[in-house]
Amino acid sequence: MARLPRLNLPGIPQHVVQRGNNRQVSFFSEADYTVYLDKLKDYGKKYKVAVHAYVLMTNHVHLLLTPETEKGVSQLMQALGRYYVMYVNKTYQRSGTLWEGRYKSTLVDSENYFLLVSRYIELNPVRAGMVNHPAEYPWSSYRGNALNMDIGLLTTHSCYEALGVNDDERQNAYRALFESRIEDLTLEEIRDATNKAWVLGENRFKLQIEQQAGRRASPLPKGGDRKSKVYKNQPL
């Protein structure tokens, strides 16, 4: 089955995942994480892409981004990926690819899913059994969003700003979100949408994206008569 084209719309957040080739290690030392984040900041500014949340795992990365232009995320990921591969190959005297290929992404319904995806991203090290709490992991945005650490590459989103009238209120409210676990079905929903280039959101949001992008935002229902009028009238 042909891969769906990525959905890129200005002003709409994207959850982006980039994995190491064959899930092999992509970060070999603390310096590597620092280089990646520095260039993420630089290219974010260059291509006008706001970074709201991130986590750098040993063999993959998760990013929550909002582009100002249609091509912003693609330009950022291409430039960042190219630079980082060159850096790793030169530093460790290796050659060849580092990433598994195309990064994966999904558009995120800000009103209903933005803070959920941010929490999903920053909880990755906990789910992986690397730490007991996201604050213990140094290579994520949690300390910036929840603990007032100055992380220069982060830009707050309106959904985050709505958590309170000042920084203290927002951080307290944000930390409180982590007191409850993300349900397994929700985890699967996030992963499925990201891996298959569907849209992560409520039906109204998906319909809006379908109208703007000219293709389906979610898979067709399983079963039924694919020759029926209902099937034929599904958005492309």
Automatic annotation (TrEMBL):
InterPro entries linked to this entry: Transposase_17, Transposase_17_sf
PANTHER family membership: TRANSPOSASE IS200-LIKE DOMAIN-CONTAINING PROTEIN (PTHR34322:SF2), TRANSPOSASE, Y1_TNP DOMAIN-CONTAINING (PTHR34322)
Domain Transposase IS200-like residue range list: 9-124
Protein name: Transposase
Superkingdom to which the source organism belongs: Bacteria
Location of region: Disordered: 211-236
Gene3D superfamilies tied to this protein: Transposase IS200-like (3.30.70.1290)
